[in-house]
Amino acid sequence: MRKKLYHIIFESDTPAGKAFDVALLVAIMLSIVAVTLESVQQISQQYSQEIKIIEWFFTIIFTLEYLLRIYSAPKRLAYIFSFYGMVDFISILPTYLSLFITGTHYVLVIRGLRLLRVFRVLKLSHYLGEAEILRSALRQSAAKIIVFIGTVITLIFIIGALMYLIEGPENGFTSIPVSVYWAIVTLTTVGYGDIAPQTVLGQTIASIVMILGYGIIAVPTGIVSVELSRADAASVQKKTLLQQLEKEKEAAQSQYCKSLPAAWQKRKEGK
Questions:
Q1: Fewer Cβ atoms within 10 Å of its own Cβ: the N or the C terminal residue of the chain?
Q2: CA 68, 69, 70, 76: dihedral to nearest 10 degrees?
């Protein structure tokens, strides 16, 4: 029974396993829709009771599923503390917490992380491989990006302090933190417009910062792009090497099979 449950719940190779996973994904999406609709005031007021019933229905279903996963898992602790195990637990926790703490059920949108199982269900192994390349590229470029972000943060504080001295409280730059906020908004080219420099020097610096912002946005993109190209090339090289090794293995096996009759004949002649 436990082994059969394991194949249905954890595997998607069998029709029953695939049907279970597809049904689970549909249930996850419907539960997220229910939580999302509850945040709309008009819908919440009109269908509050119905939405709560739906929410608890899905929570009970997911709780039973979580308990069945623990029961059928060969290594229970390994599953409980795995990524999916933690997500499965966290996805049912907010509804129970909402009995004691108001508003926590909105965190149920974290169930969206469970939709990552779609890669396993639909056998999108190619996309998993591409995800691995992306992860490798981000890991390789992490140090460069951290140094770059550190430089940008330093620059933002310098610009913020400078604008505070130039513009001053009378023009809306009431403190260095407010000026730093303006520098972040301007450098990222968001430009809310709630604070704007009034002096000629301040406007000149603002113009330079805006132009600088476009260049700054391009830098991390370039870093990651280079690492993606390297990771992709390494992946292709690895695949080519594996294919070459497979061909050599097949050739060696074929040669060995061909040499067996001659070796057997020599052995018979020796006798």
A1: C
A2: 150
Q: What is this structure's pTM?
A: 0.52
Select from 1.20.120.350, 1.10.260.40, 1.20.1250.20, 3.30.450.20 the CATH code of 2-123.
1.20.120.350
Is-same-fold flag (2-123; 128-270)? no
Share above pLDDT 90 across residues of the chain, in percent, rounded to a whole number = 18
Sort 148 into a burial class: Cβ within 10 Å, 0-12 / 13-18 / 19+.
middle
Separation in Å, CA 14 to CA 57, 83, 186: 27, 24, 55
Is-contact 20 7, C-beta < 8 A? Answer: no
> In the chain, what are the domain boundaries?
2-123, 128-270
Cα separation, 249 vs 243, in Å, equals 10
CB atoms within 10 A of CB 94: 21
When pLDDT is averaged across residues 63-76 and rounded to a whole number, the result is 90
Name the band, by pLDDT with cuts 50, 70 and 90, for residue 164: very high
Dihedral (C-alpha) 165, 171, 176, 178: value to the nearest 10 degrees?
-160
**Class for domain 128-270, per CATH?**
mainly alpha
